[in-house]
Structure formats: C-alpha cells, structure tokens
Amino acid sequence: GPVNTSRRRNRPAVLSTGQQMARSRPPSRARNEDETPPMDWLAELAPELQLLILEAVDDFSDCAAVSLATPRLGLLAFGHDLARFKDPLFAVAMQQQLAQRAARGDGHRTRSKGEQQTPVTEAILRKYSADRRARQEHFPWLERVSPALCLSTGIRGLGSRRFEFWRLQRGDEPGALLRERSLQRGTIWHFTGEAGAERQVRTEYATGEVQLFEGEKGAERLVRTDFLDGTIKHHEGARGSERVVRTAYADGRLKHFEGEMGAERKVRTQFPDGGTQYYEGAPRARALEAGDPASAPRKESTLTQG
C-alpha cells in the first residue's frame, strides 16, 4: 500500500550546531546593547570559507590581531600554511600587538584613532634580518608600523662586485649594517654591532654551507662550519689560521684532530655506540676527507679501540 509520509514531512530537520547558532539570531537583526557579543562568529561557517576569509587578510598586523582575538583562527591559518601566517613578520606583528596590549594595560581595549603604535625594537629587526625567509618587499610594512626604526636597503659596487645591503634605519638617518648579499654569487654576510663597529657573525653560501664567526671587527675568526648533509666542523685559532679540531657527522660519529691549519691529523674517533678509536701517524685527515688519499703522507695506525 501507499507509504504514509505525513510524519516524515512534519518532522523537524536536524540542524548542525552552526546552523542552530545561525538561526538563533537573524544576521539582519540589530544586537541589543545588553546582548553578549559572540566570541567566534566564523565558527558558524564551513572551514573552507573560513580559510578563504583568512587568505584575504593581507596585512601582518591584521593577521596578528585576528590570531590574538581568536586563537583558533590563527592555528587554522598556520596549519594550512597560509603564507602571511607563516612569514617571519607575522611573529614581529604578534610581538608588536602584545607590546601594545601590555603598554595599555588592557588586553581588550582597541587602539584609538591617531594613537601611536608601539615601535618595533632593534632586537626584533635584527632577528628578522637574520631569518632566511626575510624579504625586502616587506620593508614598507615595517616602515609603516615603526617609522622611527625600520629597515632600509640599497646597492653598492659595480659589475660582478655589486652587493645588496640591509641596514637599520632610524628616521632619516641610516644605522648599523645588518647584512650584505652578492648579486652574482648569492653569498650572504650577516653582521652585528653598532654602526661603524659592525662585525661579521655568519656567512651563508648558495651551496647551503654556513660559516659562523666570533671576534671583534677586523679580527673575526671562523669557529664553525655547517654543511647540508648535517656535518659540522669546529675550528679554533686566530683569524687566518683557524684549524679544524672536531668534526661531527649526522650518523653520530665524532672525529678529533690536532695540528696546525692545513696539517691537522686525526687522533680520535668516537662512535655512537660508545666506542672510541685512537690513531697515530702523519697528518692525513684533510686528504682523506677531500677524497684524495694518495696525497696523504702515510696511513695512521690504530692504537686502541674501546
């Protein structure tokens, strides 16, 4: 016989939580003054639509404000690799927003029109400049939020010796040099210190090799070299005569060397299992590591192994 559908037609539809929230108050109705404002209206929307809205937030300050107001949205944007929320300037904007809240003593009061923003600190700018993801295209944003202290860039040199430089900018006065990049080779030099006394602290090569330095300006000495395969070399000695004293490998091996620069000899190898092997003999470590054993004077002999 025919199926009775009257009950099915009259049965109320089952609504999702978001739909129930949406129907609880029509968007067109004005909110009463004593009505508590919602904490997260975007939660009523589909996740795909929330992401589209977050992608449209194109200012770092706004990205930070959204994330602080509704942490769930910040985590959603970060988890879906939205570029603005993963850029190092997002962290700068977050620190600035938090500093503004602390200065006001009220985490909820919005900044009044014409109220000055808390300036970005020199430490923040130096940290941003040292980040490999930093881009000069973002300098206008920094200048807008912190005109008294921001970053500037320029080109010096001619031909194959042209370099792009970044420096601190204090109003109209150029400040300390932060980094230089060879436009031909792609090598980047990083500096620290006050204007006129900048010293080199790191060099990044296009191959991925990174060198770290210590010492005052004009006397910087190489102390460490990092390679893409995870190998790390440690150096000691004055500038120009830095010798390799230790090499750590990604597999856990640790080799120790003695001798002057260019004549280092391997004296000990420590293994991940706790074993240690000792060596004696003429210098050959550099020749072996360079893949040229024929140039080694003679082979080291193993003394003990523990």
From TrEMBL:
It comes from Emiliania huxleyi. Residues 1-36, 272-306 are annotated as: Disordered. It comes from the Eukaryota. This is Uncharacterized protein. Residues 297-306 have a biased composition (Basic and acidic residues). The lineage of its organism: Eukaryota, Haptista, Haptophyta, Prymnesiophyceae, Isochrysidales. Residues 1-11 have a biased composition (Basic residues).
